[in-house]
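Kindly inspect what follows.
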Amino acid sequence: MAQDMNKEILALHRVKAGQLRARYRDLFGEESRSGNRDWLFRRCTWRVQALAEGGLSEHARLRAQALAREADIRLRPPTGMEMLPAARIRRATRHWDERAVDCW
């Protein structure tokens, strides 16, 4: 069982993003909103491992739900706050081995 899981993860490591998106669809039953290969690889390997080894325990799942309910998550940025201007990038010249080097 673990050997099959390892083989599948190694196979996922070798495929391209389009193939990972198809595998994501197979594993999760929905399309991925991301085309980022690294993210797709991590999610697919996590799902393969969860299916092979059982995923989270019921206790861990309930604890995660409780933490999510308690989290103070903003859905919108606060209004009425003044935005600070971005810091200016200053150019400096440094002298090194009798040469002038521009630094940003």
